[in-house]
From TrEMBL:
Keywords (A to Z) from UniProt: Membrane, Transmembrane, Transmembrane helix
Protein name stated in the entry: O-antigen ligase
InterPro entries noted in UniProt: WaaL-like (IPR051533)
Transmembrane segments: 26-45, 51-76, 83-102, 122-138, 150-168, 188-211, 218-233, 239-259, 266-288, 400-419, 431-458
Length: 484
C-alpha cells in the first residue's frame, strides 16, 4: 500500500511515493531552474536604476525554496545515506555556527538577510546548504547530466548579456573604470569578478562535455559555449578570468587523458585560447570604449566600481595605503587587513556579510543623521572595504575559524567522494561534477562567494558526492532481495 501523510489520499502524496527515478528527474530539473532564478531577476536592476539588487536576493529566495523542498523530500526518502552524510553534516555545522556569528554580529538584520545590494547573510548560507543537500540526494546519472547542462546553461545566459555589455556598455554598472570606458562584462552576477568565477565553472563543464559527448548536437552546443565563455572571460579584465581560463584548459586536458577522448576533439583547447586572444585583440583594436590597450582592472572593479559605486558597501579606497591599479598590491592589502581582523575575532568573526561595517572609521566628524549607505561612503571612511577575494579568508573573517573548518571539511569530503564516485561508476558525469567542484575550490583562493554564483558551485559540489548506485550494484541488490 502506498504511503500517506495524515491518512490523506494516495494522489495527494505523489511526492512521498516517488521512486528514485522520478525523484531524481524532478530534483535535477528543479535544481537546473533554481540556479537560474537569481541571475534572471538581476535583469531588473541592470535594466533600471530605480530597482535595487534586492531583486537578486529575491531570486535566491525563489531558487533556495525550490532547493529546500527538494532537500526535505530527499531527506524524508533517506537519499542522504552513510555514503555522503559526512559532507552534508559538515556543511550543516557551518550553517549552525553561522547562527553564533549572527548573534555576535553588530547588526542582526544584516547578519540574517545580508548587506543591502549583497544579500549574503545567514539566510543565503542556509539556501546554499539546501542546494548542496538536494544535489547530494540525486540517485541517477541522467539527473547529474541535467545538472551539468544547467551549469552550462547559466554560463550561456550570463555570456549573452555580457556581449551586450561589452559592445554597447548598456545593462551594466561597469562601463567605467574611474576615467576610462572599458565596458567590463558582469553578466547577471553583479560583478565582473563573480562572472569570471561562474564562467570558470561553466567552461570546465562545457569543455569536458565537448570532449566526451557522443551526440553531435550536444558537442556543437558545448564547443560554441566554450568559445563564448573564453571570449567573455577576457572582458572581466581580471586575474580571476585568466586563472579560470587556464584552470579550465588544464582540467580539460586531464579529462581527455583520463576519459580517453578522441584526440581530434582536443582542438577545443587551442580554440578557447584563440577566442580569448581574439577578445584581447578587439581591445587593442580600439573597438571597446576609449581604451586601446589591455590590462587588468581588478582593484578598480572590486573596490571603486562594485563595493563603492554599485553597492555603497564601503568608502572609496585610500591611495596612500594601496595602489588601486596594482592587482597584486590590492589583493595583498585586502588579505593582510582581513587577517588582522581574524586575529581579533577568531571564534565568531564579525558577523555574516558585515566586514564593511567593522572597517569603518567611526568619527564624530561624520554627521549622525545620514542613512547607512551615506554614512558608509562618507569620505572620512576612506579605505574601508567589505569583501576580501579569498573565500576561505572571507569565511573566517565573517563567521569565524570554526566555520572555515566546517567549509574545508565539506569541500574535502565532496572532492574525496567525487573521486571515489568516478572510480566506482567510471562515468563522464561523475568526472565532470568532481572537476567543476575542484575548479571552484581552487578559484575560491582568489575569489569570494556571491548569491548569483554560489548556487551553481554548491549544486556541483553536492552532485559530486551523490550516492548513485552502478548497474552492477543494482543487480547485486536485486539478487539479494530475491534470496530474502
Amino acid at each position: 500500500m502506498a504511503k500517506t501523510i495524515f491518512h490523506s489520499t494516495e494522489k495527494s502524496n505523489f511526492i512521498l511515493n516517488m521512486n528514485e527515478e522520478q525523484y531524481s528527474k524532478l530534483a535535477s530539473r528543479g535544481l537546473a531552474a533554481a540556479m537560474m532564478t537569481a541571475p534572471l531577476l538581476t535583469l531588473v536592476p541592470e535594466i533600471t536604476d530605480k530597482a535595487s539588487y534586492s531583486f537578486t536576493s529575491g531570486g535566491l529566495v525563489i531558487g533556495g525554496v525550490i532547493a529546500m523542498i527538494i532537500a526535505i523530500i530527499g531527506l524524508m526518502k533517506k537519499y542522504i545515506s552513510k555514503w555522503n552524510i559526512f559532507p552534508v553534516c559538515a556543511m550543516a555545522a557551518m550553517v549552525l555556527w553561522g547562527i553564533m556569528s549572527l548573534v555576535k554580529g553588530c547588526d542582526l538584520e544584516i547578519s540574517f538577510y545580508g548587506f543591502p545590494e549583497r544579500g549574503e547573510g545567514l539566510l543565503a548560507i542556509l539556501f546554499y546548504f539546501c542546494f548542496f543537500t538536494s544535489a547530494a540526494s540525486l540517485k541517477r546519472e541522467t539527473a547529474i547530466k541535467t545538472v551539468i547542462d544547467g551549469i552550462v546553461g547559466v554560463g550561456i545566459l550570463n555570456s549573452v548579456i555580457a556581449l551586450i555589455q561589452i559592445f554597447t556598455g548598456k545593462l551594466s554598472h561597469y562601463r567605467l573604470a574611474v576615467d576610462e570606458v572599458i565596458n567590463a562584462a558582469s553578466g547577471l552576477v553583479m560583478s565582473p569578478l563573480f562572472l569570471a568565477m561562474l564562467l570558470t565553472l561553466s567552461l570546465t563543464a562545457a569543455l569536458i562535455g565537448f570532449l566526451t559527448s557522443e551526440e553531435k548536437k550536444r558537442r556543437i552546443v558545448f564547443i560554441c559555449s566554450s568559445l563564448l565563455f573564453s571570449f567573455v572571460m577576457m572582458f572581466t579584465y581580471s586575474l580571476i578570468g585568466f586563472c579560470g581560463l587556464g584552470l579550465a584548459v588544464i582540467i580539460a586536458f586531464i579529462a581527455a587523458i583520463v576519459l580517453k577522448a578522441p584526440k581530434k576533439r582536443l582542438v577545443c583547447i587551442p580554440s578557447c585560447l584563440i577566442a580569448a586572444g581574439a577578445a584581447i585583440a578587439v581591445v587593442f583594436g580600439g573597438v571597446i570604449g576609449n581604451i586601446s590597450s589591455y590590462k587588468l582592472y581588478d582593484g578598480v572593479i572590486l573596490w571603486w566600481s562594485d563595493s563603492y559605486k554599485r553597492a555603497s558597501a564601503c568608502a572609496i579606497y585610500d591611495p596612500e595605503k594601496v595602489d588601486i591599479t596594482d592587482t597584486l598590491d590590492v589583493y595583498t592589502y585586502l588579505n593582510y587587513k582581513s587577517s588582522e581582523i581574524i586575529r581579533k575575532n577568531p571564534l565568531y568573526g564579525v558577523g555574516p556579510d558585515q566586514l564593511g561595517l567593522v572597517t569603518l572609521n567611526f568619527s564624530e566628524e561624520i554627521p549622525q543623521n545620514l542613512t547607512l549607505a551615506q554614512y558608509i561612503i562618507h569620505p572620512n571612511n576612506k579605505g574601508s572595504f567589505d569583501k576580501v577575494y579569498n573565500e576561505y579568508l572571507y569565511t573566517s573573517v565573517t563567521r569565524g575559524l570554526p566555520s572555515l573548518a566546517a567549509l574545508v571539511l565539506t569541500l574535502l569530503g565532496s572532492l574525496i567522494l567525487g573521486i571515489k564516485s568516478f572510480r566506482r561508476r567510471k562515468t563522464v558525469e561523475a568526472f565532470t561534477v568532481c572537476a567543476v567542484t575542484a575548479a571552484g575550490v581552487l578559484i575560491y583562493l582568489i575569489c569570494c562567494s556571491c548569491i548569483a554564483v554560489a548556487p551553481v558551485f554548491w549544486t556541483a559540489a553536492g552532485a559530486a558526492c551523490a550516492g548513485i548506485t552502478t548497474d552492477k550494484e543494482k543487480k547485486a541488490q536485486k539478487k539479494l532481495a530475491k534470496k530474502k
